[in-house]
Amino acid sequence: MSYFGAATQEPLEEWEQEEGRYISASVGQLSNRHRMILLMSVALVTAIEVSNRISINVLLPAAHISAARALARSLRESSGGLRGVQALAFELARGRVQLSMNLFRVNETTPADVIAELSRRGIELGEQQVVGLCPAAVAPPAGTGRVLEARMAAAAARGGAARCAAIADEEHAALALRLEREARHLAALGVDQDSLLSGAERSAALNRVLKAAQVVNSELEAMLDIAAHGLFSALDEVTRATFPERVAALDRVL
Q1: What CA–CA distance (Å, rounded) separates 132 from 143?
Q2: pLDDT in tens, 86-135
Q3: Would you kindly state where each structural domain of the chain is located, as residue ranges?
Q4: How far apart are CA 222 and CA 214, in angstroms?
Q5: Closest CA to 158 of 195, 189, 187, 199
Q6: From 31, 35, 101, 129, which residue has the greatest number of CB atoms within 10 Å?
Q7: Among 212, 141, 222, 138, residue whose Cα is nearest residue 175
C-alpha cells in the first residue's frame, strides 16, 4: 500500500519522465495515424491506472490513536467495511492523529463516500489531504491542484511552451510565456464545477492554439484530448443545465 509519505514522485510526473521518454524514442518511424493511436492508448492507460486509485489523509483532532486504529480497521474492505478501501491510523508529531486511506476502486467508493461515512459516525474531521493525483469526476475539495486531467493539460501546455521557445522568433517567444502561465493556472485548477468547466474549455482551446502556432505534436494532442474529455465528463447535470451554450460548444469540439 502507498500511503502519505511513502511516495516521492507523483504518478504523472513519473510517467512524463520515464514512459514519455521511452515512447518518444520508440515511435518515430510509425505513421502519424498509428503514432497517434499508440500515444493516446498509453496516455489513456496511464490515466486509468491513476484514476482507479486515490490516497487521502484526514486528521482526526478529537481521536485517540487507539480509537483511530479501530476506526481504520472498521473501514477496511478486508474487515467488512467500505468496498475498495484500505486504511491505517498514524500518530503524528504533537499528538496529532491521522487516518490514511487508499481508495483503490473509486468507482465503488469515492472520497465523498468515505467522508460521508465518517460524518455519519459522528467523527470530528480536521484537515484533509489528497496524495498524488485524483480524477476530476471524484475529486474532493482537498483535490484542488491535484486534478489528474488538469495536470495532464498543464504538462501539454508546458510541452507547447518548450516547442515555441525552440523556434525563437518574437511571436513564438511571447506565446511560450503565455503557455507557461496557462500551465501554472491549469496545474492549480480547483474542483468546483465552474473550475472544471473552465478547465475543459481551456484544454480544448489549447489544442487549437498549438495547432495554429504549428507546434502541436501527437503527444500533446493526445494529452489535451484526454484532459478535455475527462474534465467535461465530470460536469454534473446542474452545471450542464446552467451553462447549456458553453456545454454545447464543448460537445461540438470534443
Answers
A1: 9
A2: 999 999 998 899 999 999 888 899 999 999 999 999 999 999 999 888 99
A3: 54-133, 134-254
A4: 16
A5: 187
A6: 101
A7: 212
Q: Contact, 206 vs 160, CB < 8 A? A: yes
* The three cell numbers locating residue 78: 478486508
Q: What is the pLDDT of residue 47?
A: 53
Q: Distance between CA 19 and CA 32 in Å, rounded?
A: 19
- Enter the CATH code of domain 54-133: 3.30.70.670
CB 54 within 8 A of CB 128: no
* pTM as predicted: 0.77
Question: Cα–Cα distance between 213 and 37 in angstroms, integer?
Answer: 23
Query: Could you tell me which residues are beta bridge partners of residue 91?
Result: 97
179-222: per-residue pLDDT in tens? 999 999 999 999 999 999 999 999 999 999 999 999 999 889 99
Q: Give every CB contact of residue 46 below 8 A, 6+ residues apart in sequence.
A: 11, 12, 15, 19
CB of 38 closer than 8 Å to CB of 27? yes
Around Cβ 76, how many Cβ atoms within 10 Å?
16
| Angle between helix 19-26 and helix 32-51 axes, rounded to 10 deg | 170
